[in-house]
Amino acid sequence: MIGYTTLGVNDLERARAFYDAALAPLGGRRTLSYERSQYYGSPDRGAMLGITLPFDGSSASVGNGVMVALSVASEAEVVQVHAAALAAGGACEGPPGQRMDNFYGAYFRDLDGNKLCAFYMGN
After folding, report:
1. CA 112, CA 60: separation in Å to the nearest integer?
2. What pTM value is reported for the model?
3. To bridge 114 with a disulfide, which of 7, 16, 23, 32 should be the other Cys (CB 3.0-4.6 Å)?
4. What does the pLDDT average to over 98-117?
5. CA nearest 94: which of 102, 82, 103, 80?
6. Left, alpha or beta for 59 (phi > 0: left; psi -120 to 50: alpha)?
7. Which strands make up the sheet holding 91-100, listed edge to edge?
8. Is 113 in contact with 25 (CB distance < 8 Å)?
9. Which of 96, 101, 106, 98 is nearest to 123 (CA)?
């Protein structure tokens, strides 16, 4: 149902480098590129994730309670995405682990403070 989600960033080139690395374990790659934004997707995952300079010209800020969750194929992929995000300069918001029945996840923030989760819903 969701076509894409965008996150505000303050330095598009720096953010591109971060997301190139953090999304690589998911097969995420650059799809649509524009002067003020960059979108990522993969052939088998549906919705895109976009990063964008705010349209109003103000600094990007983090929404309280806003988080983008990235569905992955296994617990091992959760670990890979989290590790890639931290290696690219992101901050840990919760290491990989079982959070509740059938939910294994890890949380991180990008270079502008946006919060993301990589998660696997097991059986």
Report:
1. 8
2. 0.87
3. 7
4. 95
5. 82
6. beta
7. 68-71, 115-121, 103-109, 91-100
8. no
9. 101
Residue 42 has pLDDT above 80, yes or no: yes
Tell me the pLDDT tens digit for each residue of 50-65: 999 998 999 999 887 8
d(CA 88, CA 61): 20
Q: What confidence tens digit (pLDDT) does each residue in 17-33 have?
A: 999 999 999 999 999 99
Please state, in angstroms and rounded to a whole number, the distance separating the CA atoms of residues 1 and 77.
Answer: 23
Which domains are delineated in the chain? 4-55+62-121 (3.10.180.10)
15 burial type by CB count under 10 A (0-12 exposed, 13-18 middle, 19+ buried): buried
Token pair 């995000």 is at which residue? 85
